[in-house]
Design goal:
407 residues, alpha+beta, 7-stranded antiparallel β-sheet, 15 helices
Amino acid sequence: MRVTGLIAAMLLGGTAMAQSAPLPAPTAAANGGVTLTEQNRAKLQQAGAEVLFWTQEQRDRNFPHMEDIFPGHVVAAGKKVLALPPGPALPIPAADVDAFMRAQNVAGLIVVQQGAIRLERYARGLTREGRWTSFSVAKSFTSTLVGAAIRDGFIKSVDEPVTKYIPELAGSAYDGVTIAQLLTMTSGVKWNEDYTDPNSDVARIISYPAPPGMDVTVAYMRTLPREAAPGTKWVYKTGETNLIGVLVNKAVKMPLATYLSERVWKPFGMERDAFWMTDPAGLEVGGCCLSISLRDYARMGMMAMEGGPGIVAPGWFAQATRTHADTGRGAGYGYGYQWWTYPQHRFGAVGVFGQSVTVDPATKTVVAIVSAWPKATDQELSRQRLAFLDRLFAAAKAPLARTPRRR
């Protein structure tokens, strides 16, 4: 729901010039994390500053091609793809789907039920072969890597202290904070995620002068004070999702993109390579910035709904997608392990500018939507999307013969 990671941390540093400055020339993307020169670092910061101020034409052009602007790593797909065969058309008028897509600037909409595609539509230049940026939808992917690392023995338990894996945080407000409390954003560490405030934590973190050899996220986060006992207060903190990325990287001792490829993309049968943007130090941004094809967004929802057997620790998704923290939105709404929870036992991942993956276990249905909203966040657009999702899930309640999964 919020601007996160690299983009959020940078955009406030140059908002005064962002509306008029031209985009930097495309950089060499998916470059394996080469060290940035100061000139390229400046271009990266300028591009990040401009994202919220892109015109609609720029959003349409750049959201499917972030690798032409930002550096990053490839998440390689395997040769074995999880097939998504066509199923019976969802009983919803095509005119209503068209109207929703126009009103929300939707580039891709897919409904997968019991492994079969019941609705799939593209617009705004996106195709099945293309990919679209995720913004904060990436948080749910990053948390999944914790579940994989526990299964693989790199991490023992979410009840372990964060400082075991990031010892540089020892002596800070993160003393006594568990991995679970990072995942649920209930560390009790004070954080300001106000994107209009140039002195907010999300604005200051990217420019913090890290000591040699220390990750900038870790360097900044260890300076923060505690405002509540761990586990007692929920506050949305992109910095903590970035810490989760650092923690997994240290535990598995490989780039997040590589681990995501080996433990999720290839085993589950994702169809296309993904692209994960990196920060100025060449590390993947845990809280943001994966670019993924529409069908693979849906496959991620399927994997979470099915429990990820053989990929994550047993019971991981049951824990990850249940409410652990109250977000103050009302009955049925909450936060899990970097997944949002909704009424009727639904759950999902959400990113600014209209990105979402929503799962309804009752009907075994996943809906993935990628968009180019005219605003990063908008209450009315969010309300309309929730209402349309309710219609899609209601339509999916019609009897559907079981379609066998094919790999």
